[in-house]
Structure formats: structure tokens, C-alpha cells
Amino acid sequence: MIAMNGPELTLTARTDAGAKFVSRCEEHADDFRTRADQHDREASFPHENFAAMRESGVLAAVVPAELGGLGITSIEDMVTGMSRIAGGDASTAIALSMHFGPSWSISRARRQPEADPAATDAYLRLIAEGQLVLCGAGTEAGTHTRFPLSELTRTEQGWRLNGNKIFATLSPAATAFHVFCRTRRTDGSWAGARVWLARDTPGLEIVENWDAMGMRASGSHGLCMRDCPVPDELVSVRGDWGDWSSAELVHSAAGNLTLLSTYLGIAEEARDQIRRSLIKRRKAPSDRLLADRHAIQTLFARIEARLLVCRSVLQRVSRLWDDYLDTHTDTDASLADAHELMAEYQCAKAIVEQNAIGAVDIALTASGGSGYLSANPLSRLYRDVRAGPFMQPFSPVELYEYVGKVRLDREPVVDL
To answer: Which of 88, 162, 175, 242 is deepest in the core (most CB within 10 A)?
Structure first.
């Protein structure tokens, strides 16, 4: 991150607790950056990064302070810290976001008026102690996350779960998985369901098949579930299969904002990388610094303009969510209002991802070809930033359809 002596131009924390969190994230990023390229080349999971974040308390950022965490409740604080982590290692950042999402949801549930702390505090203490690392497992090949095909079946002993998941980011370090699935009702219809599976659940296998263009160190492996036993207390049967509830819309968008800020962090790191190069390298035969060339100055200014768009949109939407969450419970939001908020997040997702990709692409252009070499960190950043649009919900194929339907008062179900 470029050091500023004047006005602060980066995202900043909103609270005192957030400022401590962001400071720790910046320290981690400096460390993670030293081995990000090696993990990328080897496609190896950065276990040491998660050990460091466990030790510093970053993994427990959203756990209430009285239970041993940092007490972060602001989405803007989480977004800011995540952008810093991503500057050091984007794979670590998206893996961390998979833990933050369900951790934040548990902490948010504890703050609801009707909450029973006994139902949440044991889990939050385990997170604070570093014993519980959570991984959301929603994605399956050939279907939308709202329509999982993994099947939960009632038995005399409890439940059995069968299915296959892809893109289970953080799976090498996770101790528990939050699995999206479905279950058949007595009338033959399908209901949506969620299941918690401990890592050592019989029948659960992590299939180490992650081999992608970018985010190579994220551990986004597959999960294979064969007759996994699940007790009643770890099962939540929801509404109709494929339907959203207002609470799920709120939690999904709020959690995914931290993932979205990863792409701002990547773009800011690319800007910093190319800036250091431009103010040192010279161009023959004039021997002028690259930074003194008008064409290069124009390219760099275009990067800065795209970063401003990303920061402005992320800050605005994060504050929108913070204001909403501070004044509403999970049960008093209408489904229509929740869809409006989700649509706003989806617009932010499109804008931030497109501008982050554009900024890194311009940085690669300004590198004059050196950034295309695998030894240059720009090549990793270029591959990593392209992962953003594929993250659910929604893909670029579905995003604009969803937003259009919400804002035109149509049923917000994307083309199946």
C-alpha cells in the first residue's frame, strides 16, 4: 500500500476495534506477501498464514470481545481489513472470507432480541480459541447455490447426507463445513436445508482437485459426502428449495462484501507494484524514467481512477449495510427490502470486479511485458483478479438478470 503523508486515500476502519483489526491485517499482509508467489507456483495452501491469524486474533475478529474475540460488528471494518490481507495474498483473503461469513452470521444471530446465547456462545468461544475454522460449502457443478442437489435423508438414527461440492475454499484448514443441501418432505416436495459437518465426520472426504488459473493457494477443493451421519441439532430445514428468506439475503450479501473487497486489495497491490517499477526503470535510448513519459502517466492515472470507483462503491455499500443492520433485526425485514439490498450489493459486485480487473490489466500493460513473466507478481495478481466474477451469488450471466427483475418488480428468480 502506498504510504500517504497527506489525506488518507484508502478505505479506513469505522470503529476503534476496526482500526486494531485493520492494523493487524496490514502486518499480516507484509508477512504473507513474502511467500505468496511460492504458494501460487506450488498451489500449496498457506497453513502458516492461518496459524499467524489464529495467534493474532484475526480469525476471531467477529467474535464478541467478552468471548475472546476482537468484537468487530461493522461490515465496513471487515471490508477494509480484508482489502489489506488481499494485498499480501489474495488466496489467503478469499479463504479467510469463507470463515468470516458463517462466523459473522453466528455472531449476528447472538445479537438478535430473541437469541439464546447458550446456542451460540460455545461455537464463538471455539472460534476465539482457534479450534473452530468454518468453511461454507454451497457450490455444486451444474446448478445454482439456491438449488443444491446434495440430499439430506431422514433415518431412524437421525439424518444422512449424500452429495458432492466444488470450490470448498479453505477446506485444507477447515474444522467444520456448512453444507447447502435439500431434503424431501412427506408430500414429495423439496425443502432447502443447511447442515454442519465436522471434518472427521464418517463418509466426508476432501477431494484435493483444486488446479486453477488463479487463486491457486486458496485450497478450493471438492467435498465428497457419502452417507454422512448428521444429528438433529446440526440440521436446519428451511423453506422451499430455491427460495430466499429475508434473513438469508441479508446474511449472504453482508458476508460476501468481505469477499468482494479482496478484488480491490488485488488492484491496489498491482498499482503499488507497477508504481515502484515506473519510478525506477528507465527507457533507452533517452534514459528517461518511465514515470516521466506522458503515455505512462496517463495509464497510471487510469488505474487510480478505477481504484477510486472501487473504493467509493465499497464504502458506500458497506455503510448502507451497516446502517441497515444497526436498525433492523433479522426478522423485521421484508423480503422485498432484502432483495433491494441484495440487488444493490450485486451492482457493487459488478462495478468493483470490472474496475479491479481493468486496473490490473492496465498495470500489466504499463509493465511493458515484464509483468507477463511468471516471476513477476503482476502475473499472479492478473490471474487472481479474474476469479471475482465467477463467485456466487451471482455469476455475470445471472447478475444483471437478477438486478433487473428486482428493480422492475418482477419475481427475482434467475433463468434456470
So the answer is: 88
